[in-house]
Amino acid sequence: MDNKTDNSKRSIFFRWFLNSKVTVFLLNVILALLIIFLFTKVDFVFAPVGKFINVVGPPIAIAAVFYYLMNPVVEWLEKKWSVPKLLTISLLFILLIGLIVLGISLLIPVIQKQVQSFAANWPGYVTNVQAWLQDISGRPEFRSVKAQLNTSTSTIIKGVSSWFQSDFMKTFSNIGSAVGMVTAIIINVVTAPFILFFMLKDGGRLKADLVNFAPVRFRVGMRNTLTEINNSISSYIRGQLTVAFWVFVMFTVGYLIIGQKYALTLGLVAGACNLIPYVGSFLAMVPSVLIAAFTSPRMLIAVAIVFIIEQTIEGRVISPLVMGSKLEMHPVTTIIVLLTAGNLFGFLGVVLGIPGYAVLKIIVSKLWRWFKVASGMYEETPQAQIPVNVDKPKS
Q1: Secondary structure of residue 346 in the 3-state scheme
Q2: How far is CA 274 from the centre of its chain?
Q3: How far apart, in Å, are the Cα atoms of 270 and each of 244, 250, 286, 291, 300?
Q4: Helix %, strand %, coil % for the chain, to 5?
Q5: Where are the transmembrane segments (predicted)?
Q6: pLDDT-derived band of residue 332, with 50, 70 and 90 as boundaries?
Q7: Is residue 93 a contact partner of residue 193, using CB atoms and an 8 Å limit?
Q8: pTM of the predicted model, to two decimals?
Q9: How far apart are alpha carbons 214 and 220 in whole angstroms?
Q10: Which of 130-144, 288-302, 317-331, 369-383 has the highest mean pLDDT?
């Protein structure tokens, strides 16, 4: 009897603890967390890796953007017309350099002139806003809040002026930081074309080389995963840049029609901000609304109309045609990803958070499907089929 009891207890212990898949899974989680904790204690070992990524990352990111824009042309001409890859790449580089030189020669002088004009007219804008607010506060219905309104206005204007004169100017007064920034930009601009050239020339072999590193039994799955990641990133980059271009065009044309000042600069800001999904257009409206408020109430209404028309065309025509639902992300998920990535990595996280989430989603989905099959914990056992309608025997 005692032996049977011991065997029963032992079997329960083995069944519920030692031989439990849940327990093994939890132990693996604990080990993974312990490994992460140990890594945090020796983070100095990985410091050179972080510095290496900071140096190499920007030119690779720039080259990757142009790669996804130019590679479809290279592959199409090679497959369709048997054009040598080196010839296509050379022609695309010449075209790209020509477009950059043309854009710099046409846009930079206009943008510089508009920025200088805005800086020169800033005191006048502040004066106009003060006069407008004083005129409103002088009306009988606003007399009760006149003192508070004047105090708030003075505080806001003093705060903006103080920021512009102190913090904003200090940013550019540090010569060492300015030289370092210029040097980094030059290095990125010089090295990115070389990286882009070899990515276009040998990019097709990169996936095959990565797959060969994997064990033979995992190569098919790894090849499919890399293909899915490549398609997701390429569609996102091309779609976002296409939408951003048309946003720039629509805002610029709209501002020119209504006579908004600094139309080209504000249009470029709108196109750049549109690279941030959902909130980019609203961020781009902030400088435009401020300038319109400095100009006149009529201009403020006109800017609001341009924004409504642009959002309607973008949301109902351009984005569905260009982007579609390729990433299959819910708007709430997108906002959460933007907030989290922005808090962790700053502006770079806001820009790269969505494609990073898309890549992570693909990898996690593949690992989860593999775990479901390998663990055997999610196998559905066929249930006995019970007939629904059974004829009763006749009495």
Answers
A1: coil
A2: 10
A3: 8, 10, 10, 14, 17
A4: 85, 0, 15
A5: 21-40, 52-74, 86-108, 175-200, 243-263, 301-323, 335-360
A6: confident
A7: yes
A8: 0.75
A9: 10
A10: 288-302
Amino acid letter for position 196: L
Handedness of CA 33, 37, 42, 43 (dihedral sign): positive
Cα–Cα distance, 228 to 244 (Å, whole number): 24
Output phi, psi for 236, to 5 deg.
Answer: -70, -45
CA angle (232, 238, 241) in 5-degree steps: 130
Q: In whole angstroms, what separates CA 51 from the centre of its chain?
A: 22
Q: Which helix (H) or strand (E) holds 231?
A: helix 219-258
| DSSP letter string, 159-175 | HHHHIIIIIHHHHHH-H
Separation CA 49–CA 285 (nearest Å): 39
At 340 the three-state DSSP class reads helix
Q: Six-digit token pair at 366?
A: 């593949």
- 255 within 8 A of 263, measured Cβ to Cβ: yes
Contact criterion met (CB below 8 Å) for 261 and 295: yes
Structure tokens given for 86: 């080196």
CA-to-CA distance for 378 and 382, rounded, in angstroms? Answer: 13
Alpha-carbon dihedral angle through residues 334, 340, 346, 348, given to the nearest 10 degrees: -40
Q: Distance (Å, rounded) from C-alpha 238 to C-alpha 235?
A: 5
Residues 6+ apart with CB under 8 A from 62: 188, 192, 196
Determine the length of the chain: 395
Read off the tokens for 6.
């011991």
Pair of tokens at residue 203: 């990019």
- Among residues 292, 297, 239, which one has the least CA distance to residue 266? 292
Dihedral of the CA atoms 323, 326, 329, 334 (nearest 10)?
Answer: -40
Which structure tokens are listed for 186?
């030059």
